[in-house]
Write a structure and sequence with these properties.
It is built from 15 helices and 10 strands. By secondary structure, it is an alpha/beta fold. The chain has 2 domains: 176 residues, 3-Layer(aba) Sandwich (Rossmann fold), CATH 3.40.50; 144 residues, Orthogonal Bundle (N-(1-d-carboxylethyl)-l-norvaline Dehydrogenase, domain 2), CATH 1.10.1040. An 8-stranded mixed β-sheet has the order 3-2-1-4-5-8-9-10, with helices on both faces. A two-stranded antiparallel sheet has the order 6-7. Helix 8 packs parallel to helix 10. The longest helix has 24 residues. Bound molecules: 1,4-dihydronicotinamide adenine dinucleotide and 1,3-dihydroxyacetonephosphate (13P). This is Glycerol-3-phosphate dehydrogenase [NAD(P)+]. Pathway: Membrane lipid metabolism; glycerophospholipid metabolism.
Length: 331
């Protein structure tokens, strides 16, 4: 039998906590890096993360917890990153251990602002990691529903099918189905864009548009996503798969979506700053809008929804007027 891989999760938020829970269903031990020494001590003493998904109970004897990123990267064969993209660069600064011989997996749905790269490419280009050793975990899956053990579907994308199957097997359980894909670039871009479209859905809701309009917005969003991804990474893919359309729908409609919540506040009249201050969690789409807009300056895909969200977030444009103009472009 193959030796069990040592897997570590890096991040202390909701998604990292949900990933550790899923892995603990199948593994003897899971490495877990988080910044907060307080949270680590709390998990050791009280069996749960004090700040995120606190209903999830852990057996601390199965966790190798550390606030030292080098210790955890050294321990792991596979490092799964679930740190919001805006903080990834600074979180990696203390890292001195090489990723050589290890696999790096992104569970992050964002673009690293400092490099303007999706996370897999950021690691590959800045840490000298072969794209074959990069993986992506994505799909329509809110951490809160994992905590509730509601049936959810994930996609593991890797260039190496054997590795994808192996990783998927560590996630599967009574409540998790896991499929695989070789589209490591397209699945990441889809995850980035769907957050932006969920902000748009939230803005529309906040402005008082109804379900009839939302469905048209989502229908246009998936076509926009297809055009954008085709420009940045052309390959054969089915945009209706759960990793693309499914993730767009869950984020655009779920009450758990932070991006939708953020957009909803903007539609209701909050300023960008005040909406951010209201949120206790991170809306990745805020950062992604700027980077995705910039990337598209080179590629020129037709992106009316992305452009409208960019205008509201970064050009201080009025949401009501911007959506009135956007509505005229949708079909
Ligand atoms: N929550 C979810 O359901 C899912 C989240 N994701 C992705 O996972 C990634 C992580 O998101 P969540 O865990 O949901 O975030 P979260 O909002 O639950 O947690 C935020 C995390 O960021 C950390 N943080 C805050 N300020 C920081 C700073 N200045 N420097 C370093 N770290 C800081 C917090 O300590 C916390 O660990 C994101 O890219 C998100 O898109 C992906 C799938 C599902
Ligand atoms: O990626 C997610 C669901 O698949 C989480 O979306 P939010 O960040 O909007 O909550």
């Amino acid at each position: 039998m193959e030796k069990e891989l040592k897997i570590a999760v890096l991040g202390g938020g909701s998604w990292a906590t949900a990933i550790v829970k899923m892995l603990c269903e199948n593994m003897e031990e899971v490495g877990w890096y988080m910044r907060s020494v307080y949270a680590i001590e709390h998990i050791k003493r009280n069996d749960h993360n004090p700040s995120y998904l606190s209903s999830v109970e852990f057996d601390p004897s199965k966790l190798k917890l550390s606030s030292n990123i080098n210790e955890i990267v050294e321990y792991a064969d596979v490092c799964i990153f679930a740190i919001p993209s805006a903080f990834l660069h600074s979180e990696l600064e203390p890292l001195t251990i090489s990723f050589e011989g290890k696999m790096v997996v992104s569970a992050i749905k964002g673009i690293v602002p400092e490099t303007g790269l999706i996370v897999g490419e950021h690691f590959s280009q800045n840490y000298n990691i072969d794209l074959d050793d990069i993986g992506v975990i994505t799909g329509p899956c809110h951490a809160e529903e994992v905590a509730l053990e509601r049936l959810s579907y994930l996609t593991v994308a890797c260039a190496n099918q054997e590795m994808a199957d192996r990783l998927a097997s560590y996630f599967e359980s009574d409540y998790i189905n896991c499929k695989t894909s070789d589209d490591i670039i397209g699945t990441e871009y889809a995850a980035v864009l769907k957050n932006i479209y969920a902000i748009a859905a939230g803005i529309a809701h906040g402005l008082g548009y109804g379900d009839n309009f939302q469905s048209v917005l989502m229908s246009n969003a998936i076509r926009e996503m297809k055009r954008y991804i085709k420009k940045v990474h052309k390959m054969k893919r089915n945009i209706n798969d759960s990793a693309y359309l499914g993730d767009l729908l869950v984020t655009g409609y779920s009450v758990f979506s932070r991006n939708r919540l953020f957009g909803n506040m903007l539609g209701k009249g909050y300023t960008v700053r005040s909406a951010q201050l209201e949120m206790s969690m991170v809306a990745e789409g805020y950062y992604a809008t700027k980077s995705a807009y910039k990337i598209n300056q080179e590629h020129g895909a037709k992106t009316p929804i992305l452009n409208a969200v960019y205008d509201i977030l970064y050009e201080n444009k009025n949401p009501k007027k911007t959506f009135k103009k956007l509505a005229e472009k949708l079909d």
